[in-house]
Amino acid sequence: MKAVIMAGGKGTRLRPLTCSLPKPMMPVMNQPLMRYTIELLKKHNIKDIAVTLQYLPKLIVDYFGEGEEFEVNLAYYEELTPLGTAGGVRNASDFLDETFIVISGDALTDFNLSQAAEFHKERGGLCTIILTRRDYPLEFGVCILDKDNRVTRYLEKPGWGEVFSDTVNTGIYILDPEIFNLYPPEVFYDFSRDLFPLMLEKDIPIYGFTAEGYWSDIGDLTQYRHTHLDILKGEIKVPLSGTKIGNEIWIGENSKIDPKVEIKAPVYVGDNCHIKSGAFLGEFTVIGNDNIIEKGASLKRSILWQHNYIGSEAELRGTIIGSQCVIKAKATLLEGSVVSDHCSVGVNSMIRPEVKLWPKKTISDNSTVNTSIVWGEGVGRQYFGLSGIRGIPNVEITPEFITKLAAAYGTVLDKDTEIVVSSDKDRYAQILKRAFCAGLLSTGINTIDIGTATTPVNRYAVKVLTVNGGVHLRLVDDGEEPRILVEFLDNYGINTDRNWERKIENTLLQEEFRRVNFKNVGELKYLPQLADAYVERLTRVVQKDPIHRKHFRIVMSYDYENLSSLIMPLLEKLGCQVIAVTQSSPSVAYFRGAKTVDHKEFTEYYSPEALANSVKTSKADLGILIDRNGEKVTLVTDEGVLLTDEIKTALMVMVALSSSDQKTAAVPVSAPTIIENLAKKFHGQAVRTKVNPRAVMEVTKESYFQLHFDALYCLVLILDYMTSQNVSLTQIVKEIPDFYMKKATVPTRWGDIGKIMRQLIDDTKNQEVEMIDGIKIFHPRGWTLIISDADEPLFHVVSESSSQEEAERLASFYVKKIEELKG
After folding, report:
1. Model pLDDT for residues 50-81, shown as the tens digit of each residue
2. What CA–CA distance (Å, rounded) separates 134 from 263?
3. What is the pTM of this model?
4. Domain ranges of the chain
5. What CATH superfamily classification does 2-217 receive?
6. Phi, psi for 419 (deg, rounded to 5)
7. Which CATH code, of 2.60.120.260, 3.30.710.10, 1.10.10.10, 3.40.120.10, is assigned to 534-734?
8. CB 508 within 8 Å of CB 408
C-alpha cells in the first residue's frame, strides 16, 4: 500500500507560529509534526509516500529530501493553485496506482493503520474513512454508520442543532485508484464537501472504520499546547530523542543543566541547551534545541522552539516561544501568549495573556503589551544607549551583526578615513573586534588594530595618532547578565554625538552599505604598543621622581587579565608598594613595587567595604578599586573611609585644577554646589554640563585623558597632589566643605516622560529653574534636579540642601509629585 501526506495547509489558526513555517514543520516535542506521520506509516510498512505541497514547500522538501534518512521513498506534488483535499490527492494520481492511504501532515495519531487497511480490503469499497469519537464534534465531519459500518449520513462541521453523532472524520482515508474516475483533475475538489456527498448521492459505498487510540488534529494554538501535554502525560507514545532521567524527564545530547536547577516532571529539554543555576523548569515544559536559560528564570507549562535566550529571573507562564527569540531579564510572559520567530522582549516587560507577537517584533524594556502586535516593528527603541550599543553576547551581539554595524559605520565615514579599533581580553570580544575590522575594511576604511586595551587607551590612541575616530568592544559583567558593549569615539576620542549615532542606525536599518572595489578596500595596521605609550604619557603629566621617593603603599582591587599590563608598569615607574588582589583571580594575591610586603592577611577583596577594612589593616596610604575597563574608581582614605561619588567628584576637580595647565573642569549638573568654590580656590572654573558622558567629556576634549572616565589618570593626579602638598588623602578630603544630598528614582512608562516633564515645567514657571539637563529647581536652602534616564523609563531625583533632613524632604516632595503626575 502507498500513502499520500497532505502537507499544503497554511495553518492560519496557528498564526503567528506559521507565518514563516508550514504547519507540518511545526515542532512537536522538538520534532517536525510530519515526521511522526512518516514514522507511523513506516511502522505499518508503508514506505512509498506522496506529499502534496502548497504553502512554503521548500522548507518541507529541504528537511525530508527524498526520504532516505527516514527509510522511506518520498515524491512531492506541488499545487500551483489551491486544489482542495481531494484535488490535491488527484494531482498525485500518476503515483497512486494501488490502494493508498490519505493522511494529514498536521495531525498526530497512533491508530493501527494495518487494521484499517485490512478492514478496507474486507469491505471491498472505494473509500474507507477512519473515524474516532469526540464529545465536541463541531469542528469535524460527523458520520452515521449502519450495522455493516457503511456511512449512511455525513455532515461537515455541524452546529449543535445539527449534531447527530459523536463519530467524527479524522481526515484519514483509505482509497482505491478508481476513486479518481469520480471527479475531474486540476479543479478544486474537497473530500468532505464535494466527494463524499457525491458518493452518497450516487449510492457509492463509503465505509467507516472506528479506530482505537490517540488522535489530535492540531488546528489551533490551544490544541497545539494540549498535544504536548498529552505526550508528556503518556497518552500517546511517540519516539522522543534524548535520555530519560528519573521521573519523566528527558534531556538531549550535550545539554548542560546546573545542579542547582529545580525540575518538576514531566519536562523535556532538547540538545545543546544550557540551563543555569537557580532556574526552575515546571511541569509540562518543553525546551527545544540550543536554548539558553539564565539564572533564576522560571518556566511553567511553556513551549520553546530552537535557539532562544531566556534572561535571568524571566517568568514564562503557559507561553509559546518560536525560534531565535530573546526574552530579557525579568520579563514576564503570561498564559496563552505567543512570541513568534526573531522577536525580542525587553527587560522588565510584560506580555499579557493571549497576546501574540508576529515575527521580528521588538518590545522595549519596562513595557506592557496588552494587545497583539501584527504590523510594524513593535514597541522598540534606538540601538544606541548612553554609552554605545549594548547586547547579549552571541545572542543580540553576534559576529554577523557586528560586521553589518561596522559596514554601516564605515559607510557614513569618508573613504580613506582612519579608525582605531580595540577590544578587552575577553575571547568573544576579540572575535567581534576581528569581525568589526572586516566590516570597516570592506567599506574602504583604513583600520588600526591596537590589540587588547581599555577605552581610556583607545581614547588616547585616537588623540595621539590623530585619526578620525575609535571603536572599543568589551564585555560588561557588573553582577547581572554579561553584555557586550560597543563604544564609538569621535576624532577627539570622546563618545560620538547623537547625530552620528542616528546616521549609523539609519544605515544599519536600511542596510545600504558602501561596497568599494576589492582592490580599494581599507588597509589594516597593527599597533599593540599604544598601551605602553599610554602608561608613559601618564607618568609625564605628574612629578614622577618625587612620587617615586614617597613609596606610597596602595591596596588595589582590579581585573588582572584586563588591567595588569597597565597598572603594574605604571605603579612600578612611580615606586609604589602595591598590595593587589585581582578580581578575576580573587584567591591569588599579586605583589609588585619597590618593596616587598607581607601578604598573609591579603587574600580577597570582593567589595568596597572589604577594601576599606584592608586599607586600615595594612596601614596603606589609600585604597582603590578599579572597574575592568579602567574607567571608574572607588576610593578609600588612609583611615579606611569609603568616599561617596560626590566627594570623589569634588576631589577629582581639586587635583586636576591644582596639577594641570588646564584650568577648566567639567562638572555634571547633579554634582554639589561646593565644587564651584573649590574651583575658584585653585584659580580654575567648573563648567556645568549635562549628565551624559559625552557632555562631560566635551569640556576637556583637547586633553589626552578624561578625568571622570580614566581611573589611572585620576590615581596619578591624586598621588601627585599628595606629594606636592605633602598631605594624606584624609587631609585632602577635609578640605572639601560639608554638603548634604539625597538621591531617589521613580519608575514610569516611556510614554509618560514627556507629559510629566511638561507638567513640571508648567508648575515651576514662577520659580528659579535651570534646564541644562532635565529641570533643576532652586529653593531658598538648596535645589532639586529631576531628569529622565537615557536607558530606562524612570526619573532621577537629586536634592541638595543645607541639612540632610531638608535634602531628604525636598527629594521626597518631588518623588510624590511625580507619582501624582503619573496618575
Report:
1. 999 999 999 999 999 999 999 999 999 999 88
2. 34
3. 0.78
4. 2-217, 240-369, 389-528, 534-734, 740-822
5. Spore Coat Polysaccharide Biosynthesis Protein SpsA; Chain A (3.90.550.10)
6. -130, 140
7. 3.40.120.10
8. yes
